[in-house]
Amino acid sequence: MTANRSAVLHRNLRVDPPVAVRGDGAWIIEAGGRRVFDGCGGAAVSCLGHSHPKVIEAIRRQVGQLAFVHSGAFTSEPAEALARHLVDRAPQGFGNGATMFLGSGSEAMEAALKLARQYWIEKGEPSRGRIIARDMAYHGNTLGALAAGGHAGRRAPYAPLLIDVARIPACHAYRGRAEDETPEDYGRRMADALEAEIAVLGPENVCAFVVEPVGGATMGCVPPAPGYFRRLREICDRHGVLMIADEVMCGMGRTGTLFAMEQEGVTADLYVIAKGLGAGYQPIAGMMVCETVLDAIRGGSGALANGHTYMSHPAACAGALAVLETIEEEGLLEAVNRLGARLRAGLESRLGAHPQVGDIRGRGLFQAFEIVADRGSKSPFPPAAGIAARFKQEALAAGLLCYPSAGGVDGTQGDHVLLAPPFISREADIDFVADVCAATLDRVLDRAAA
Ligand code: PLP
Question: Where is pLDDT greater, at 410 or 351?
Fold first, then answer.
């Protein structure tokens, strides 16, 4: 018998993670009482922290009344109310649109890819089967979503299982903009790569273009260049290609607006949302469909070809509705902008001149800094130095949970630290995050050099 070995299949088979037993606002309390500040919301999930009474009560009430019904037989009051709440606040063209609720961002991403494909079949253009996505994107870990993703390291082990997704470069000014290029010219150049790829594939074969409005987990909070999305929208419209905005990480207020794309002044045809939607109180994601796409399906087969058991889960929908209501009632979008500016200023003042920090970027409470071996050449540390992994351990030891990642430059090289604190954080918490990051970086670099 191996009684002291965990029977949970943890991500790391050599080290069991500490046991978390309780949440207290933006703090997580471990068995033994140690408090850790959740500086990344897990993975940009816990926007309301871990003990919000309104959300807890909404879920408790719903489970007491009706925990589950199968969406093939019934709808439920929370699912209806949540969908109405979202479409009422959604971008233009979604007023008569609809939302499907699923269990995870990956599942919602799969649903979006399949719905885009179904749209073209219903429209009588079955040759439109190709998806275009961007290098270094992250769209999830199920096979379809992983195939759309562009992170070489994450894709490599599963390569034989992945569908063939066409790819264009990401818009990443720190890494890609030429010195003599304006941000606008760079945005246009990157967007025009989509048009070039559509020409290669033939527009009659292209189904959809998938894009994160603010590049998240793999690249580290990379905002688009000015005009990039307007140009992408023009190109999609010109060739009848659907635009799928993956707002799983950057949506639901994280960047300061409910939908991250609002800040680009254009609308996608499908939105994929998750993480902050349920704030971690229940697993939930959404796939939002605009009127035009929905009308084609309504006027065609009238039925979705894709379904899952836990779609529109009533308890999850009740929790998510309470989350979105709380964001409005407590003025949390304003808080995201105010605290986000404080976090950015805190990082700039502590790390802006650091010789091993190449870039500080992001929007709202979605900020990252990139660690480099040489600031002039932007060259990363060798992957074997394990900078991101060391940073995570050192920060945790200092009481801060953050989200460092490796491979952000090309899928194997590069280190950045992503920060996504809860919207309910206090100013002192935000300063703590910046302080711990600065101290941790020096400790990590000292140890790496030793
Ligand atoms: N899309 C983006 C942009 C993400 O950041 C993630 C997760 O990090 C996903 C999709 C997949 O979501 P999930 O992990 O809930 O399946």
Answer: 351
Instruction: Choose one of 139, 270, 403 to mutate for the ligand 1 pocket test, by most ligand atoms within 8 angstroms of C-beta.
Output: 139
Q: How many CB atoms are closer than 10 A to CB 191? A: 23
User: Is the CB–ligand 1 distance for residue 106 below 6 Å?
Assistant: yes
For a pLDDT cut of 70, what percent of the chain falls above it? 99
Residue 280: count of CB within 10 angstroms of its CB: 24
Q: Is 217 in the pocket of ligand 1 (CB under 6 A)?
A: yes
Q: What distance in angstroms lies between residue 142's CA and the mean position of ligand 1's atoms?
A: 10
Mean pLDDT of the chain, nearest integer: 96
Measured between alpha carbons, how far apart are the two ends of the chain, in Å? 41
Q: Return the percentage of the chain with pLDDT > 90, whole number.
A: 92
Q: Transcribe 358-398 into DSSP letters.
A: EEEEEETTEEEEEE-SBTTTTBPPPGGG-HHHHHHHHHHHT
Atom of ligand 1 nearest to the CA of 250: 3
What predicted TM-score, i.e. pTM, was given to this entire model? 0.97
Comparing CA positions, the residue from 366, 444, 448, 378 lying closest to residue 409 is 378
The verdict on the CB of residue 421 being under 6 Å from ligand 1 is no
Can you list the alpha helix ranges (DSSP code H) found in 143-214? 143-148, 152-155, 173-176, 183-201
| CA proximity to 132, closest of 238, 209, 241, 211 | 209
308 Cα to the center of ligand 1, angstroms:
18
Angle between helices 332-351 and 314-329 (to 10 degrees): 70
Closest ligand 1 atom to Cα of 104:
15
Ligand 1 proximity of 151 Cβ (cutoff 6 Å)? no
